[in-house]
Amino acid sequence: MQIECHAEKIFPSDTQAAFDLIVDAQRFPGTFVGYGLIPSIRAIVLETPLAVGAIRRIHNSDGSVLTEHVTVLDAPTRHAYVLSDFRAPFAWLVNKGEADWRVSAADSGCNVRWSYTFTLTSIWIYPLATLLLRVFMQRAMQRCLDNMANLLANAPDEPKASA
Predict the structure, then answer these.
(1) Which domain holds residue 56?
(2) Number of domains in the chain
(3) Gyration radius (Cα) of the chain, Å
(4) Structure-derived torsion over alpha carbons of residues 30, 142, 102, 48, reported in degrees to the nearest 10
(5) Which of 13, 14, 18, 90 is most buried, judging by how many CB atoms fall within 10 Å of its CB?
(6) 101: in domain
(7) CATH number of the domain within which 48 lies
């Protein structure tokens, strides 16, 4: 059984700037501050250069370290990965999370849509997992997108490469 979570926001930037922030191991952790039972991200450590098949370690404020296996890296429109190695009590509810980031041009910047599909350990924990994921995780995701949009809105203009 699976539970899906979604968050979406218009960013005041072009698709490349948004995508760069999504995959930035230095800047992204500061935007994911968690919500309720969902911890914030303290650091992202790449084990290999970022590419399809790369492994990243996600260090959270609760001391957990998750593994992120990159499955899609198609700049500047899509980034996807599988998140695993949850620790108890979350591991009692979820086996894995499959994330999918989609970035597309919009009239006033770009649209960023972040989806997660969580595979549950059992059908019996569906009510509890739904509460945790749809209330806490989905709000953590939306808060992250809000923080990312604010960061990009306040970023100094970067020099453009000449043609």
Answers:
(1) 2-153
(2) 1
(3) 16
(4) 30
(5) 18
(6) yes
(7) 3.30.530.20
| Distance spanning both ends of the chain, measured CA to CA | 50
Domain assignment present for residue 158? The answer is: no
Q: How many CB atoms lie within 10 A of CB 48?
A: 10
Could you report the per-residue pLDDT of 48-78, keeping only the tens digit for each?
999 999 999 999 999 999 999 999 999 999 9
Question: pLDDT per residue over 78-134, tens digit each?
Answer: 999 999 999 988 899 999 999 999 999 999 899 999 999 999 999 999 999 999 999
The pTM of the full predicted model, rounded to 2 decimals, is: 0.92
User: Both tokens of residue 121?
Assistant: 């350990």
CB atoms within 10 A of CB 2: 15
* Cβ neighbours of 27 (radius 10 Å): 16
